[in-house]
Amino acid sequence: MKPILYKSNETEFTTQGYGTLSDAISCKVTEELNGTFELEMQYPVEGIHYENCALGNIIFSEPAPNREGEPFVIYKKTSPINGIVTIYAEHISYRLSYIPVKPFKANNCVEALQGLVTNSIEKNPFSVWTDKSVNTPFETTIPQSFRTCLGGVEGSILDTYKGEYEFTRFLIKLHTHRGTLKARAKIVYGKNLIDLTQEETIENTITGIVPYWKGSVTYEGGQTEDIVVTLPENAIQSEYADKYPYKRTVTKDMSEYFESQPTEEQLRKQAQDFVKDNVTGKPDVSLKVSFLALSNTEENRGFVEEMVNIGDYVPVYFYKLGIETTAEVVGITYDALLDRYDEIELGKMKDSISTTIADIQKDKDDVFVKKSDLEIAIALAQKLLNGGLGGYLVTNNVNGHPSEIIIGDSPNIETMVNCIRLNEAGLGLSKSGYAGPYEIAITGNGIVANAVNTGELNGNIIKANTVKIGALDEEVTGSIDNANSNANRAQSTADNAQASADEATSKADKAQGSADSAQASANDAYSQAQQAQADADDATKLAQNAWQGIDNLSQIIVVDNTGVKVKEARDSSNYSWTRSDGMHVMVASEEVAKFGQESHIYNLAVSGFSMFGAHRAETIKLNGKEFTAFFYIGDVK
Q: The pTM is what?
C-alpha cells in the first residue's frame, strides 16, 4: 500500500485522511525486537500533500509484508536538498513516553500490564495483552512514564517478566515468544553469503574447556596443602570441535560446583554437563543480510519464499563447518513502496527494550528542564542551523563586480521563497522571496525583527515608542506593549503611526489617576506620547530609507585579511563588515551596529512582546482600562 497522511489526532485510520503520499521517492520501516520502530521517507517538496507533512501528523504505512498498516508520528524533517526532504517518524506507541503512571502494586504479569492502564494519569487510548501467566509481584514506587514502566528501568515489566513486545496501533502485546519456527526458511551461510560480523563471531566460538578444581586440604596436626584437581585427558570438547580448522579451548574453574575436593570422575561429569549447556560449539548467529542478496542465491530461495516476520526462528546452516543451528529474526527493514524486505537481521535479541526506552525517555525528560526564553531561542536556532545544510548561494553582479550575496532555497532569485540577502546596506531575511518584505534585517539604521531574544541588553535608554524606561523594575512605567505595536504600524504608514500616537496619548491620560500602574504623572505620559509621535515619524523614515537602499544597488565586495566588506564604492565609508566575531555595520567608518556573540545596536524596532533578561512587558486590561505591565517570566502563565 502507498503511505497515507493523517492529522495528528486520528485514531481510526479508516478514511483517506489528507490523502495518499503517492509522490514518495522511498519509504522504509525499521523494527527491532524490543527496540526501535520507526519510518523514514524521502519526499519532494513539490509532491502532493507535502504542505501537510507537518511535525506531529501521522504517516500510515505497512511495517512488513502481509501486516496491516501502522501509524507513525512525524518528529523530524530535514531541509530540502535538490527539492527533496527526508521525513522521520516514530511509531505511535512512542506517545506512551508522555503518559505518566501513578505508583501501584500487582501480583502477576496480567495485573501489572493492566495496572499501567488503570493508573495512567493522562487520558490513555492504549490497551494491553499478554500470554504470560507469571505470578511474580510487581511494584512501582514513584510516578514514571508508561513506556519507562514497560522496560526503561530496573524492576520494569520486561525486567520482571521477560518476553517480546509487539506494538500494533494502540495495542501493546507482551509475548512469551512473538514468532514461530519457520523450518523452510533456511539460510545457508558461507557459500555465497559472507558477513564480516558473522565471520568474527565464528572465529570467537569456543569449542571446549580445560576444567579444574582448586582448594586446600588440612591434615592432622593443622598442616594445610593447596591442591589442584585436573583431568588426565585435560580438556572436554563439544561435539562440533573437530568441525573447525583448529580447536578454541579455554580454562574453566569448576570450584564453585563442589563443597569439597572432587574425584576426577566427578570433575569430568560436571565439566561434560557444563559443555553441553554452555559450550555447544555452534557459532552464535550475528548476521545482517540484504534481502536482495538472499534472493540471488539458489540455496536461500526457501527463506525468500517463506513469509518470515520479526520474532520468527529460522535454521542457519554454516556451509563450511557443516553445522546447523537456529536464530531469531531480531530486526527488519521493510521497503513499503516495493513491498519487500530491504534487510534482515538474525541473532540474539537485545538484552531488553530498556536501553532503547531509556534513551528515548532521557530525550523526553529533557523537555521538563526549565529553560529561559533565551536558552530556548538558542536551542531552536542551533537546531534550525544544524538542519539548514543545502540551499543555493547566488551573487548579484553590477558593472561586472559581485555586489550582493543571496542564499536561498532555489538557484534562481526569482523563484526563491526563503532567502538571506547581504549587501552594502546590511543583512536581511525574507520568507516571501527576494523582493521581500524583509521582516528581519540589520542595517546602518539598526535591527528590525519580529522578536528579539537576548541574555543581556546594554543601553542608556530603551525606546518603546510611547514610553522611556531608565531602569527595569517590577512597577509599570508606561504602555510598552502598545508602544511596540505603534512602532510597527509607524514603519508601514505614517497615518497608522499618527493614530497609534493618539491612542497612546489617550491611554497616558487615563493612566494619570492610577498610581499602582503608572510611575510617572499624566503630564510626563503626555510628554512621552508626543516624543513617541516624533519617534514614530523617525521610524517611518528609517524604514523607508532602509528598504529603498536595497533596490537598484551598485556595490562591490572587498575581501582582505580583515574580513568581507560590502560597499557602495571602493572608497565608501558606509559598509557592512563580516569578521570572525560577527557582523559589523559601519556608517562614516563608525560602528553603529554589531551582530554576534556580543551584540549592540543604535536603534532597535521590535514587534510583539519584549523580553529583558528575566522580564517580559505586555499590555493588560484592568477594570476596562489597558496598562502595560512588567512580569518576571516565572509568573507568566
A: 0.49
